[in-house]
Amino acid sequence: MKTKLLDLLKVYEEEISLLLWTTALLFIIRSSGIILNNYAETAFLKRYGVEFMPVVNMLNAVVTFFVTGFLTGLLNRVSGAKLLAWIFLASGIIVTVIRLMIPMGFDILYPVLFMLKSQFELLQALLFWNMCNDLFNTRQSKRLFPLLTAGGVIGLILGSVGTPYFAKWFNLDNLLYLYLMTTVTGMFIVQAMGRSYGSLIYQEKSGEGKSKKKKSMVAEMKDVYPLLKDSLLVKIVLVLTFMPNVVIPIMNYQFNYAIDDQFASEAAMIQFFGYFRGALYTVSLFILLFVGRIYGRWGLPVALMFHPFNYMIAFFAFLFRFDMFSAMYARMSTNIIRTTINVPANGILIGLFPESYRNMIRPFLRGTVVRIALFAGSSLILISDSFFHPRYLTLVALPFVLAWLAAPIILKAKYATILKDLISNNLLDIKSFGTKELAQIFKQDKKVLTDMETSFLNATGEDAIWYGNLLKNFSQASLDKNILVTLPRQDEATQVALIKMISPESRPGAAATLVDHLDSKRPETTIAILKLVCQEGFTAARDVDLTPYLESTHPVVRGFAAACRYSQSPADTLPLIETWINTRDMDQRQSGIICAGLIRKHSFIDRLLEILSEKDIDPIIPDIIIALSRLDARELNTVISSYLSYEIKAVRMAALDALVIDNDTALKKAISLLGDSSEQIHDFAKEKIKTAEYRNNKLLVESLGFPSSKIRRGIFELLEHMDIKEFDILIFAKNQILKSYTSLAMGVKLKQSPQSPVVEMVRDHLLQKKELILENLIRVL
Questions:
Q1: 275 touches 446 (CB < 8 A)
Q2: DSSP letter at 215?
Q3: CA separation (Å) from 703 to 273, 638, 668, 709, 778?
């Protein structure tokens, strides 16, 4: 049962402890935060006044700017975990002091607490996720962070629903003592994690050369202005960021005003906040676990229209019926649409920019633009509040909502042009998107794909290859057909590259068409076509006259042609193959060897092994190894072992290709080739290890002790791709330390024994072994 549950959740057994600790910590952060939020909001509205909310929000934005800057500076000098423990303790003490001051009648305490609850929530969440990034690698994050988030949402639900009950049991103001208890619990959890995983979470920061001076608002504007001037997409993204952040304070103000009007007492209001937010977070949990991202049903521009259109409906609801039900609809619907549609769609829209642009645009949007928009929204509330009832703020917000809605409409109209410009300028990073995201990007306008296919058909040479690689990501079946159309007008190198792009599903049908393009004057193209024909069972070459290719001067062409002829008439072709293999002419022998492997005739294995033992056969060694691999020769790994370190690159490449990674010995050989002088062999060895069915993560981690930096670089890249966890390295380190101590203890014990030359030699060996283990461990860490 436990194994099935772990498989369902995609959690490894050694990750359970750390996952439970971090989930418990996020549960405490979220549950304590929502209790404080419910109390602070209720106390502020009832004891201070909703009319002061715009001013407090503006001050809060300013405070947030300085607090985050200060925190960034601290993170460069102190570990995030230590800072989080301090923040837990400090926030609990500050809230307790405020609780003790409440009987003194200082009204200013309530807006201060209202701002502090936002700052505490921001700091704790930021430091928590910063700590998680130290604890988990990228691939672990993709698997485990949704579970962590779910634990946090459960904390929000229980904390929110429990708030009314806690208020009844302890008295409303005493909720602040409950907050102290939860933050102290959070501090103890961080300290307990530090005792168990100290090396992972208490990573000291030197503070030297790591902190970069944050750009000013004016500097950010200067950097982005050229992009804003030239790019329609940047203008659209700017509007999609600015407009919603103007109307969000307005809607929040209307929500709080309506709730304040609806509930006369603090008890009734906190009960509403508790149950309503509990229901809201329950829906969010359901969406997180079961619904996921549903935005892919529509094109990207259409998906971006939902949020502003729903805001328009919510604002009109406030205009025509300013009460609790309009407020509930507004908060509930905007949260759901933002979570399921708007946030992921916005993420994809930003992802259309190349990474260098994203690094420039994101801080500008999330910092400068958001702050200006929030100030603008709060200012509009302050100005309007003197003239009319908050229900009419809908009319103030409406122009901004319409401008927000206009942005995706313009994006929809210009979407094909924008994508085409990004593609033509090679600014769209296709590899950074998943299959679903690519489908989402190109779903809106089929004209983009049509234009790309037309460009592919009109392109030649490198341009044709570039468009082919691009189209592979979107419409492989269509690309396969278009390759057959454009192939005759391409040069030989381009023809070979395009033939290799044909998908396995289309190869049987393509083979019958490709044989019409056989040309003895283009040997490389002919080899590519005949190779594909051989892979698909030779049937496509049944009616082809192979005589010109059997008489070709190119040995590889002859070998593939003979294999195709063998499929038609084995009895007539076999003597020719045997003659080629037994001749002393190197070219003809190469043709025979290639053909022997292709026709899968096992009787040739012994003869090929005999040839492999001969001298002065370097040019045909790769062909022999490939043929033996195709024939599934016995103990092939043993046969090719010496050729993995052969001086000729082609031989090493062929041996690596034939290597079957099915045990630790074979895996070690592949790992050693990560240090090969050829980058091509290094990359191929890495891919071979990555795709092998046999895996030994422990051996890979231990191999980090190799002195070769190239091997270590390749292994580190494999560790990230193969989801090898920090725990593997931690366990490796513990085992190595244990071995080191064992060697040291044995050496010390021998020192106490009667001395002799043999004893001294063994003791020296043990001490040297201890040093070697420690050196390897240091290399790994």
A1: no
A2: P
A3: 56, 22, 8, 11, 13
**Residues 269 and 386 placed together within one structural domain of the fold:** yes
Q: Model pTM? A: 0.60
Please answer whether residues 350 and 358 qualify as being in contact, where contact means their C-beta atoms are separated by less than 8 angstroms. Answer: yes
Whose structure tokens read 């791709």?
721
What is the per-residue DSSP string for 130-178?
HHHHHHS-HHHHHHHHHHHHHHHHHHHHHHHHHHHHHHHHH-STTHHHH
Please check whether residue 711 is in contact with residue 676, taking contact to mean a CB–CB distance below 8 angstroms. no
Q: Judge contact between 258 and 323, C-beta under 8 A.
A: yes
DSSP single-letter state for residue 538: S
CB 750 within 8 A of CB 763: yes
The model's pLDDT over 493-522, given as tens digits with 9 standing for 90+, comes to: 888 888 888 888 777 777 777 777 787 788
Which range of residues forms the domain containing residue 755?
A: 727-780
Which of these three, 718, 740, 757, is where a domain ends?
718
Q: Where are the alpha helices (DSSP H) in 76-137?
A: 80-101, 109-135
Cα–Cα distance measured from residue 205 to residue 618, given in angstroms and rounded to the nearest whole number: 55
Total domains present in the chain: 5
**Cβ contacts of 418 within 8 Å, gap of 6 or more:** 232, 233, 352, 411
Supply the mean pLDDT for the chain: 80
Residue 745 lies in a domain: yes
Nearest residue to 529 (alpha-carbon basis) of 551, 502, 555? 502
Segments of the chain scoring below 50 in pLDDT: 206-211, 292, 431-432, 434-435, 437
